[in-house]
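Full entry
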Amino acid sequence: MKAFEITFERMVEKGEEGTYFPVEFTVPQDAEKLEICYEYARYEETVKDGRRFRREKNIVDLAVCAPQGYIGSSGSDRTRIQLSAYGSSQGFAPCEIRRGTWQVILGAYKISPEGCLVRYTVTVYPKELGLYKGDTHMHTVGSDGNCTLDEIAWMAEKQGLDYVIVTDHNNYAHNSQIRPHASVTMIPGAEWTHYKGHAGMLGAARPFDNPFCVNTPEEMREKFDEAGKRGALRVLNHPFCPNCGWRWGMDAVEYDLVEVWNGATPAPVNLECLSWWEEQLKAGKKIPITGGSDFHRTEFGRMLASPCTWLYAASRTSADLLDALKRGHGFITYGPEGPVLRVGPEGYLPGDTVPQDAEVSFVFERLKGGDVIALISDQGEERITMEEFTSEYTCTRKVKGLKYLRAQVFRQPELIGGMPALISNPFYVSGQEDGID
């Protein structure tokens, strides 16, 4: 959808000079950015003795309130401002563009005797589905990493990432210091770290109140329940790791995702987790997956977004990225330079449940000669080898009789311990049982 304008005006009388009053307008759902402009006759020009004079006859100030509260003001210095979650004009807080009633606060500082007509134009930029790449698991100086939040943001920008989720061990103090960046969305989180396993708690600035320590399965479940109620996505991190795997039992707690690919975990262990996930899919379960670098410090062979989680989201806001992650609307690659899976002409996203009579398309980009595509379902696996570099390659398949269909791409697997270069979330087929049993 293209950007569109909302226009309105307000006549300010001389008697209203020295007062403030709201002028309301309505923003529809799914807006990503607003631009607010206003104009009025601020100056009066006269000519005397061949000379041109200009005097200020009206001064109108601007402030803005969103449905969630006060956003900021610029006085009369600027007549054009922009607002978004990624950053706003000076004097205005970054803000999510929520549906509902907004207000411009008109400040009638100086009004001429004949009054002043103020015209407002609000340009609404709707959200559009986009593909965003980033990292769902990394650490800073807030725990055992050696990079600050700003250094992480700088590295992410240099690598062309769109988002990172900060997950320090048992610590969320850093979340209050996260600030918006124009090109990288910094999402708060924590990694709940226990001797019996680690879990990402993503998207909540404070996923739990009391100390992280628990000693019983009941206390562990209470911690997970608290994080879930606070809006955190709960991820079982590197669950098969021999040193810090999930020893509570994979069915001992309700969770939202599983990290099947961890950058700090040996490939055979990641492959074991991938095999476990495949068995859950065959059993009819729907478990979204993620891949995280587990980045701690700059060292050889370790970098952000290795692996890289790609998400199809309505925007680059935290809320939309987390929603996409929870729905499984994405795929994982060995890094941001890996192959890409595009949306097919049917419009289905990975993680969607499709009708039994549907066709789904896997549209691959950046494939190289020798790459092997694997289309995997509960009924088996089909492999296709690329003979040469292919800028785009499409596989369309019927899903009738299947529980799910997903894709992997193998590229020189010996270089990454046998891991695929790409792992997609599945297309699920309607009639399959929902949820995690």
User: Anything to note?
Assistant: The domain at 4-126 is CATH 2.60.120.380 (Jelly Rolls).
